[in-house]
């Protein structure tokens, strides 16, 4: 089961590599002013930034948790 979840997350990262602007802006991190985006894979939220042609995954967050814990 863990291997399947990891594969789903890695597939999500690969998709974002090809379509980085697909994710929605992450409102819980607006206060940082860095235009963080999110991509949801199952119960996991991948939080990322786009800098030029580079995509930085800054956090993975279990979306079953309280989103107020994501302060940045």
Low-confidence region ranges: none
Main sheet summary: 4 strands, antiparallel
Give, in order, the helices and strands.
HEEEE
Strand content: 25-35%
Q: Spatial order of the strands in the main sheet?
A: 1-2-3-4
Shape call: flat
Give the class from helix and strand content and strand pairing: alpha+beta
Helix content: 10-25%
The figure for the number of domains is 1
Q: What is the radius of gyration computed over CA atoms, rounded to a whole number of angstroms?
A: 12 Å
Name the features.
single chain; 72 residues; four-stranded antiparallel beta sheet
Compact description:
This protein has one helix and four strands, in the order H-E-E-E-E.
Detailed description of the structure:
The protein is of the alpha+beta class. The protein has one domain. The protein is 24% helix and 33% strand. It is built from one helix and four strands. A four-stranded antiparallel sheet has the order 1-2-3-4, covered by helices on one side. Strand 3 and strand 4 form a beta hairpin. The longest helix is centred in the N-terminal third of the chain and has 17 residues. The radius of gyration is 12 Å and the shape is flat. The termini are far apart. The mean pLDDT is 88.
């Amino acid at each position: 089961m863990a291997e399947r979840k990891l594969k789903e997350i890695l597939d999500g990262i690969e998709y974002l590599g090809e379509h980085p602007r697909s994710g929605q802006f992450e409102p819980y991190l607006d206060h940082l002013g860095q235009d963080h985006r999110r991509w949801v894979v199952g119960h996991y939220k991948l939080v990322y930034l786009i800098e030029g042609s580079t995509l930085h995954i800054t956090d993975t967050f279990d979306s079953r948790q309280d989103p107020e814990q994501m302060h940045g």
